[in-house]
Amino acid sequence: MTETQGTLTPVLTANWADDRSWTLSSYAARGGYDALDKALGMSPDEVITMVKDSGLRGRGGAGFPTGMKWSFIPQDNPNPKYLVVNADESEPGTCKDIPLMMASPHTLVEGVIISSYAIRANRAFIYVRGEVLHVVRRLQAAVAEAYAAGHLGTDIHGSGYDLDLVIHAGAGAYICGEETALLDSLEGRRGQPRLRPPFPAVAGLYASPTVINNAESIASVPSIVANGAEWFAGMGTEKSNGFGIFSLSGHVNRPGQYEAPLGITLRQLLELAGGVRVAPTGQARELKFWTPGGSSTPLFTAEHLDVPLDFESVGAAGSMLGTRALQIFDETVCVVRAVLRWTEFYKHESCGKCTPCREGTWWLVQVLTRLEKGQGSPEDLDLLLDQCDNILGRSFCALGDGATSPITSSIKYFRDEYLAHLEQGGCPFDPARSTLFEEAMA
Amino acid sequence: MSAANDQHGITDATRAELREIAARYPQARSGLLPMLHLVQSVEGRVTPEGIQACADILGLTEAEVSGVATFYTMYKRRPVGDYLVGVCTNTLCAVMGGDAIFDRLKEHLEVGNDETTADGSITLEHVECNAACDYAPVVMVNWEFVDNQTPQSAVELVDDLRNGVERHSTRGPRLCTWREAERVLAGFPDGLADEGPSAGPASLVGLSIAHENDWKAPSGD
């Protein structure tokens, strides 16, 4: 434990380049399912304590301590307990769980078994978004292999513990990433969020005690059990322990997945990624704005390059760590166009349950559309902020809050660019310059 | 030629499979989403007959099933072509070229959003973020990834699909039909899980940099 730790720390991604990494034989060759044996030799409460001590916090965006969530399950409740994995990865910019489940579905399956054992669940579900066919295939195959090998089913590894796991494909609804909407969807209903309390830990799936965790959170559990809570807590920052997958996309030379301790900065990651992409003319291009954790997290700019990417530091700088979905936009991109497109997404994905979000996102699109066309007035910016004020904190769930993030943050940093649209009677940018194939289009 | 217009109807075999899906869950209604995927694989869309069959099996009204089916984007009320081609036009893909790709395909195929070509082979739509931003701009065919597209490569893709030329996902198997894909989503595997690579190049970028620098996580217990 004393050797120095690399700038990148592949754990979840470590086996992704292995031959047929998705198969049980490949996973087992690296010691896969040994952590399950170790966990089954512990008491369920010892596993919960270990995950608590590791400091693992939810990797789906909110950052709630995973072990604490598990400990909220009332074990004296007579109903069956359930584990549900949120693999409905749909937040714009977020692209970590999909490659994880495609390359190493057994990491997630082993995590599901250990986590279910800890909370005394005999049924578990992986709710994966439906729009990723090959990932669904790999998950189905991994579950079948795990059953055949005795990792799932009855009397797992001779422990007397039973678990059944179902792969459940969703049907295209961003809102189902919200945990209570996901539960309604898994019950065969429209995916709309539920009023809390009661929280899922008390009344979740079928009104029974339910733990619902993000796929990356659950996939991190086998490594914690195998290597110990201290090992995990030794990485990252004081309050944001461990490693996570950082997803770089957009105008960078090497977009992709970078697994690193929490607290790494975008400056460090960009250096590894070869910097902001260069124009076909060879001219350097500048970073303009970026999302630290998906489109629902307020935009950052070049002034935030050195913000440590951990829950506390990103929060203190005015945004959220979210899902570490680092979407990089260079100087060729019109921020108004970008924000309008995200807002259209939130309008489309609003479930319609509450008025502030259902009506509010519709009106946001109206005002942004006319601004983007250069047809509004400067007062429209105040109108937008007023609309955001009526959505943020007044919506039923976080979708409405998230919809306001790109708008308020872009007006904060790029008010002049909105006004330029009005002055010029339209967008001052050439969209062709932002594309990957700008040379071919020119 | 087109599977889209070739409806088979809900047979007893389909009803048996619908019941099999419902039986996977502690409460049968949980099976409704995969059951609707199966209806689409059989009918080419969510039909009134399919809704009726789901309602009968689950003890729901048709209105309750319709209420669910109309909520989710993947359920289609009009016939879908053999290949559902979805162009990501969420912000990042749009900016990187998704808008240009979508415009070019609309023009080339002479269809608008959510419309099917006259020969019934291709349904074109724009899709929201499909969790492959490091491969932008992304096109989905029957929910398989076709990564790093350009307007030209997307035109070649749809032309090949219409002409029966075998095409593969960039991270998966030979592209199957939309109905075949829907059957897998209903929970009936097609045996193709072992096709394709472990991961695409972008997924492995950080891992290879770590290898080059001999960077690792600390060793554990």
**Counted beta strands of chain B:** 5
CATH class of the largest domain in chain B: Alpha Beta
The percentage helix of chain A is 40-55%
What's the CATH topology label of the largest domain in chain B? Answer: Glutaredoxin
Broad shape of chain A: globular
Radius of gyration of chain B: 20 Å
Count every beta strand of chain A, where a strand is a DSSP E run of 2 or more residues.
9
Strand order of the largest sheet of chain A: 6-5-9-7-8
CATH arch. level architecture of the largest domain in chain B: 3-Layer(aba) Sandwich
Q: What shape does the CA trace of chain B take?
A: globular
Q: What is the CATH topology assignment of the largest domain in chain A?
A: Rossmann fold
Order of strands across the main sheet of chain B: 2-3-1-4-5
- Largest beta-sheet characterization of chain B: 5 strands, mixed
Number of helices of chain A: 18
- Low-pLDDT stretches of chain A: none
pLDDT under 50 segments of chain B (min length 5)?
Answer: 1-6
Distance between the termini of chain A: 54 Å
At CATH's second level, what is the architecture of the largest domain in chain A?
A: 3-Layer(aba) Sandwich
Describe the secondary-structure layout.
The complex is a heterodimer of chains A (442) and B (221).
Chain A: H1 24-29, H2 34-40, H3 44-54, H4 66-71, E1 81-87, H5 97-103, H6 105-119, E2 121-128, H7 133-148, E3 164-169, H8 179-186, H9 200-203, E4 210-214, H10 215-227, H11 229-233, E5 243-250, E6 256-261, H12 266-272, E7 287-291, E8 300-301, H13 311-316, E9 325-330, H14 335-349, H15 355-372, H16 379-391, H17 398-424, H18 438-441
Parallel strand pairs in A: 1-2, 1-4, 2-3, 5-9
Antiparallel strand pairs in A: 5-6, 7-8, 7-9
Helix pairs in contact in A: 2-6, 2-10, 3-6, 5-6, 5-7, 6-10, 14-15, 14-17, 15-16, 15-17, 16-17
Chain B: H1 12-22, H2 32-43, H3 48-58, H4 62-69, E1 83-88, H5 91-109, E2 115-116, E3 122-127, E4 139-141, E5 144-146, H6 151-162, H7 178-185, H8 205-213
Parallel strand pairs in B: 1-3
Antiparallel strand pairs in B: 1-4, 2-3, 4-5
Helix pairs in contact in B: 1-2, 1-3, 2-3, 2-7, 3-4, 5-6
